[in-house]
C-alpha cells in the first residue's frame, strides 16, 4: 500500500521522533511505500530513514523551492512546481493518508485532504496520528463542527484518530482489506 504521510520537516524531540520512527519501521516491515514531502530534514528524515531501513520504498514529492533539501536516495522523487501541485501529487500517488505532528504546512495539507474527502473527491482512509495528544485540540474542534452541523458526514467517516503507530497502521490495513 502507498501511504502518504504529512508531517513536519522540523527537528523535534524524542516525544515525537520515537513514535514516528516506530510507525516508519512498521510501514517498512509491512512492505508498504511511504509517499511523503521528500525532505531530508527533521521528522521527515526520521520517517524516511525508518521506512527505508526496514525494507519499504520511498516516493518523495518535493517542491521547486525546497528541491535542494530533497532526499537523494529515494526510490522515486518528483519535483512539483508549487505547493498546490505537490499536495495533488501526494494524494494521487497514495492509497491512504496519515497526518503526523507538524506545523502550519501539515495543518494546511490535513485540512485540504479532509475537505476533499468531505466533498467526495477521494475516499481514501485518513488517520490523524495523535502522538502525545498533539491533535487533542483539533479533535475537539472537529467534534464541535460535527455537533453543530458543519460537517455533512460523521466525523468517524472523515478521519480516524489513532493514539499510536500500531493503531494507525491497523486502521489503514483494515480499511484497505489487508487484515
Layout of helices and strands, plus pairs?
Blueprint: E1 2-6, H1 14-29, E2 33-36, H2 42-53, E3 57-63, E4 76-80, H3 83-92, E5 96-99, H4 104-118, E6 126-129, H5 136-147, H6 155-158, E7 160-162, H7 165-175
Parallel strand pairs: 1-2, 1-5, 2-3, 3-4, 5-6, 6-7
Helix pairs in contact: 1-2, 1-7
Query: Which whole number gives the mean pLDDT?
Result: 94
**Order of helix and strand elements from N to C terminus:** EHEHEEHEHEHHEH
Terminal CA distance reads 12 Å
Shape: globular
Oligomer: single chain
CA-based gyration radius: 15 Å
Number of helices: 7
Number of strands: 7
Strands side by side in the biggest sheet = 4-3-2-1-5-6-7
Which runs of at least 5 residues are low in confidence (pLDDT < 50)? none
Biggest sheet layout: 7 strands, parallel
> In percent terms, what proportion of residues is strand?
15-25%
Structural notes for this entry:
- Strand 1, helix 1 and strand 2 form a beta-alpha-beta unit.
- The longest helix has 16 residues, at 14-29.
- This protein has a 7-stranded parallel sheet, sandwiched between helices.
- The mean pLDDT is 94.
- It contains 7 helices and 7 strands, in the order E-H-E-H-E-E-H-E-H-E-H-H-E-H.
- It is an alpha/beta fold.
- The chain is 45% helix and 18% strand.
- It starts with a strand and ends with a helix.
